[in-house]
Amino acid sequence: MEHRLTLFLLGAFVFFTSVTCQHDNVCFRPELQDNIELDGIQRYFNPGAELPLSCKQGYTPMSGPRKIVCTASGQWTKTKLKCIPKRCPYPDPLSNGEMYYEDTTYQSAINYTCHEGYVLTGASTAVCQANGTWSATVPECLPVACGLAPIPEFGMIIYDRKIRGNSTDYGVTVTYRCLPPYVLIGKARGECKADGEWTEVPKCRVVTCPPPENIDRGYKSSNDDREYDYKETVKYGCHGDYVLEGSLQVVCQQNGNWSEKPSCKGPCRVGIDKGRILYKGRKLWIKDLKPNRILHKELVSVYCKDEARNCGYAVPTQCIDGKLKIPQCFEEPSSLDYTLHSGSLPSEIEQC
């Protein structure tokens, strides 16, 4: 009995060993490159078995062959099959908007946005699908709509283009005007904004200015003690040798005030008693300047001496509202030099 049991166990071992040996050269389920797939779930394949290869959904086969064979050595034959992503057509441009994408291959995405003042109608994103088409058509960017422009009281509006219906699009502009005698206060131009609202509407009102004040040492063209209308003007002038500085006239402004008034600037006396000056292109002895005065902003030059080079030179100075500064380099000569030796004065010797 013991002998029979031993033979039975030994026979079983030989059978197990024989089955195992038959699988020494089988091919295991192959590991394929990305995007290549094969059907079924079989894990082991005998030599000579063929496996058809295909591309995953959304990919197109390139190069071949499209099958592999299990060899006697338990290895699969090589394949150069490549699966490249399918490509969708380039999208149409988006009017009044922008689109952002890096590629048009399978699973690539396009993002759409609209410019300021426009609203996106349609899908904001499209994805390239496995069949080579986009998941959504190109959307539209439609302009934001405003109502009709508000009309100011005592005023009117003029549209820059023809308007139909009771709405206007973003960017439409108008011009505001007031009916006489009203004056427009605010901006004369209006626009439909990106938020669907109009810019601030100006107002129409009557504007007057009080009687303008006179200026020192001057006069004005009108002394009427009355209210002056918007944009009415009054002119000014100066008495005698005074010079008007600023605008010749003032204007009644939108805020009910006059524009800035001018002023009258006084003449200057040349403050030297002996010497020669250069005035309006002429050399004059100071005693010959009659009367001794130059007007506001006029230039006069006195003569100084360069001791090192023994030559003279003219130094200009300007009259500013009655004040004339004599340059420090000027030295007034003595009465003797001025009377008997005038040829030695800086104005008479060789000029530097």
From TrEMBL:
Pfam families: Sushi, Sushi_2. One of its GO terms (cellular component) is extracellular region. Transmembrane segments: none annotated. InterPro entries: Compl-Cell_Adhes-Reg, Sushi/SCR/CCP_sf, Sushi_2, Sushi_SCR_CCP_dom. The keyword Protease does not apply. Its main location: secreted. It is found in: Secreted. One of its GO terms (molecular function) is heparin binding. It comes from the Eukaryota. CDD domains: CCP. Gene3D superfamilies: Complement Module, domain 1 (2.10.70.10). This is Beta-2-glycoprotein 1. It comes from Anabas testudineus. The gene is APOH.
